[in-house]
Amino acid sequence: MILVTGGTGFIGSHACLALAQAGHELLILDNLCNSRADVVDRLQRICGRRPLFVEGDVRDSAVLDEVFDRHRVTAVMHFAGLKAVGESVARPLEYYDNNVHGTLQLLAAMRRAEVRTFVFSSSATVYSDREGHVYRESSPRDATNPYGRGKLIVEDILADLHLAEPAWRIARLRYFNPVGAHESGLIGEDPRGVPNNLMPFVAQVAVGRREFLNVWGNDYPTPDGTGVRDYIHVVDLAEGHVAALDYLTREGGLLTVNLGAGRGHSVLEMIQAFEKASGRPVRYRIAERRAGDIAQFWADPSLAKMLLGWETKRGLDQMCADAWRWQQYCEGLS
């Protein structure tokens, strides 16, 4: 059985589907601070089996011990983290408490239960923005905000843990900009309040929930002047997690790989693709650059292809079509 923390969230729920489709039994642990319990119902509708679900927090050692005592967990995929960069700057203590302290509590509970296979949801925010356009696993790390710094701290904790206790099988998966939704339209990204990421904001403008999108700068040294990012379909990302788990089962060790498409799309490209997918206009206005934004970056995913046999399959048009299908479904949930 695989324990999926944060399994009702955007990436966690898609990982649950990918795991179920690969034949794994699932147990979801989530405190529902940024997700909905009925995601479990929708997962059942899609895959025909209902995952076990426990409402609880990874910082609660008693809840964790009960989960490991009652269920035969063999591995953990850890998605239970707060994830908004801007919010992390305003609320650093909450981010370090949840993302760093919560992970430490989870690892300690795993050790007590003698479960030592761990797949960690890391991020491209651990990379220094001085490196250039293409990020490789060997690129310098230098997080510039509490969200990224928390990911970097946990990465180092995991490296230290594996060095001290080599029996641990650990994957640190650095991914770039997850977008899209499951093709069923039943699960996807459903941010509370104002979206922090581009695609859900674009989708909300297209559906009429928001009046326009701010495009932060159009004078970058890129083909159309807007920022370029590596967008990865969330289903491709979820399949990468399953591939990483399979690798750990076969090879063990400490695995660190990028999960990205290896190419970039600009903000204006994203807007145009979403207009094509939705048949709706996406109004936007050009605003001043945001402090700290860089012109462009994307992953070098070649190591993941070599070690995991994994690469992305879904392009920008499918990302937008699936996200639009999900956004229309979301309107009925509101």
What does this structure look like?
By secondary structure, the protein is α/β, with parallel strands linked by helices. It has a domain at 2-179 and 232-260: NAD(P)-binding Rossmann-like Domain (Rossmann fold, 3-Layer(aba) Sandwich). The chain is built from eleven helices and 15 strands. It has helices at residues 10-21, 39-47, 61-70, 85-90, 92-113, 146-164, 198-207, 234-251, 267-278, 302-308, 316-333; strands at 2-5, 26-30, 52-55, 75-78, 117-123, 134-135, 169-175, 177-179, 213-216, 228-229, 231-233, 254-259, 265-266, 284-287, 298-299. The strands form five sheets. The protein has a seven-stranded parallel beta sheet with strand order 3-2-1-4-5-7-12, sandwiched between helices. Strand 2, helix 2 and strand 3 (52-55) form a beta-alpha-beta unit. Helix 1 runs parallel beside helix 2 and helix 3 packs parallel to helix 5. It is globular and about 55 Å long. 49% of the residues are buried. The model has no long low-confidence stretch (mean pLDDT 94).
Major beta sheet, specifics? 7 strands, parallel
- Tally the helices: 11
Q: Would you identify the CATH H-level superfamily of the domain at 2-179 and 232-260?
A: NAD(P)-binding Rossmann-like Domain
Rg to the nearest angstrom? 19 Å
Specify the helix fraction band: 40-55%
CATH topology of the domain at 2-179 and 232-260: the name is: Rossmann fold
Average pLDDT, to the nearest integer?
Answer: 94
Distance between the termini: 33 Å
The strand order across the widest sheet is 3-2-1-4-5-7-12
The 3D shape can be described as globular
Which regions are unreliable across 5 or more consecutive residues at pLDDT < 50?
none
What is the H/E string?
Answer: EHEHEHEHHEEHEEHEEEHEEHEEHH
Range of strand content: 15-25%
CATH domain class name of the domain at 2-179 and 232-260:
Alpha Beta
